[in-house]
Amino acid sequence: QKYPEKVRYLEHKEHQNRGMSATRNLGIRHAKGEYITFLDADDVWLPNTLEEQAAILNSHPDAAMVYGPIQWWYSWTGNPEDTGSDFLDNPIVPVQNYKVNIDTLVQPPTLFLLLLQGKICISGMLMRQQVIKQVGGFEEQFRGLYEDQVFCSKICLQFPVFVASKWWYKYRQHPHSCCADKKKTKTEYFARGTFFNWLEQYLSQEGFKYTEVWYVFQKELWLYRYPLCNDMLSIIQNFINIKWIKWQLKLMLQRTLLAK
Q: Are 198 and 141 contacting, i.e. CB atoms less than 8 angstroms apart?
């Protein structure tokens, strides 16, 4: 009411709850700006977030979106035991051969591969509206969990993204959030299966079949479908690593004795 020219309230027909993806798409369809961002009701932006993110996209016209680390925010409660629990996630956790520089453009499909393997969390991003339209917006079958991963996967597979070292987003942690509620049940496990089913079809349709992206996806799909086999492989790998460490220590001891 105070800023009718700046703030608009939208709702679905007959006030239906159609889930997160359909609701974000509703907002996108009514948006008039060049850039679009999302702020969940329980999270907080730092001051100057939009100004700083827009400046980055303005200076990097090839970037589809920009994001940085987020703060996992526990201290909002004001409880002394939560004060020291806040932490920043790493915008990039390198795996295997995927070395990514910070404060620069990252070319596809690197971020997608890291996202698929759970090595990065993309949130608090600012993106170009035209890019959202090019990838078809959010997939409305994903009403809650994985709606953001599906959306970011489509962007990171096709467009360069600017990864910043600056953080702008406070991600409130509390036991009644959507993610926390789902983790208490097996909902998250089944949601990941739905995500993999969608992704398999999408990669085939978009021509990624039998590429590096496809083989990394197949590996993650196998780990999801056969978690016990994955646990056994981890145990075997740890055993091999322990044997190797013992062998190295033995060599060092022998060399020390020979030196004496």
A: yes
Give me the count of residues in the chain: 260
Confidence of residue 99 (pLDDT cuts 50, 70, 90): low
Tokens of 225: 């479908």
Q: Show contacts of 113-117: CB within 8 Å, 24+ apart.
A: 113/212, 113/213, 113/216, 115/149, 115/152, 115/153, 115/156, 116/153, 116/199, 116/216, 116/217, 116/220, 117/216, 117/220
Q: What is the DSSP letter of 36?
A: E
For tokens 């409880």, the residue is: 79
Question: Which of 213, 146, 143, 141 lies closest to 183 in space, CA to CA?
Answer: 146
The pTM score is 0.82
- Scored b (16 or more CB within 10 A) or e, 129-140 reads eebbeebebbbe
For range 92-107, the mean pLDDT: 73
Instruction: Give the β-pairing of 161-163 and 65-67.
Output: parallel
Tell me how far apart the alpha carbons of residues 85 and 169 are, in angstroms, rounded to a whole number.
16
As a whole number of angstroms, the distance between CA 129 and CA 31 comes to: 8
Contacts for 192 with CB less than 8 Å, ≥ 6 apart = 146, 224
